[in-house]
Every structure is written in C-alpha cells, then in structure tokens.
Design goal:
Layout lengths: L4 H13 L4 H4 L6 E6 L2 E11 L5 E13 L7 H14 L3 E6 L2 E9 L5 H26 L3
Antiparallel strand pairs: 1-2, 2-3, 3-5, 4-5
Helix pairs in contact: 1-4
C-alpha cells in the first residue's frame, strides 16, 4: 500500500495553510517534509504502517528533535523524570530519546484525517515543540 496522491496533497495543503511552502520543504522522492518554525524543526512523514493484525494503513507522523542530550549531562535523571511526567500529561504527543536526541512526536491514521485536523496537528506539534524547547533550555541550561 502506497501513500495516495490525495493524502499527499492534503499534507501539502495543510502546510501551505499555516504559511509554509510545502514545495520547498518536501524531500525529493519520498513523503517527508522538513519544516522550520521559530527555534524548532518539525519533520512530517507520511508512511504505510503495518498494524498488529497485519493490515496496513496510511499514517502521518510529526517529529521534532528538541535537544541533544550530552552523554555526561549532569541533570540526566532530573531530565528523565521531567520527560516521564510530561508524557503522562500529553493526550496525543509523546517524548522519546533516539541517538541522544529528545524527540517530541505524534502519530495518527492519515486515512481518517481531514484538512483541519492535519492543520491542528501541525499547529499543536509546533506549539508544544517550541514551548518545550524554551522550558528545557531554561530549566536544564541546554546551550
């Protein structure tokens, strides 16, 4: 199952509606858009996901790398506790750590979404990523 052109166009329309140029942010030859808003990067990926019952559905994932956590970061335990606490308070977003990067992400079934919902997902992901970037830089002295 491939991403449908109508699903791809829905993402392009949502990106354009928030004032960003989808044609400039879309990566060639794949369904990835690399966006920048304020201090954050927002990566949008449309993909086919295999579900537990072996069916496949189109999904959309938005990811924002918030901070790079140094190996010798002195407040690592405090940071991890902060992340766990924040994850319990989110409805649709979540934090994860990959290759020392703290990443905020959200995922939905693309086939079930309309334009206003994708716009809301872009706005929400951007808002939370920017706010947590500010909080983490202030609270944990990231450079």
């Amino acid at each position: 199952m491939n991403i449908l052109e109508s699903e791809r166009q829905l993402i392009n329309d949502a990106i354009n509606s928030i004032g960003l140029a989808s044609e400039k942010s879309k990566q060639p030859d794949n369904d990835i858009w690399n966006l920048h808003r304020g201090n954050i990067q927002l990566i949008v990926v449309a993909q086919t996901t295999e579900l537990h019952n072996e069916t496949k559905k189109s999904t959309i994932c938005m990811m924002s790398p918030i901070v790079n956590i140094p190996e010798d970061f002195p407040k690592k335990l405090e940071l991890y506790e902060f992340i766990l606490d924040a994850n319990h308070k989110f409805n649709t977003e979540s934090f994860s750590i990959s290759n020392q990067w703290l990443i905020l992400s959200s995922n939905y079934f693309l086939s079930d979404m309309r334009l206003p919902e994708i716009v809301q997902m872009l706005e929400s992901s951007s808002f939370y990523a920017q706010k947590f970037w500010e909080i983490l830089h202030d609270k944990f002295d990231f450079e």
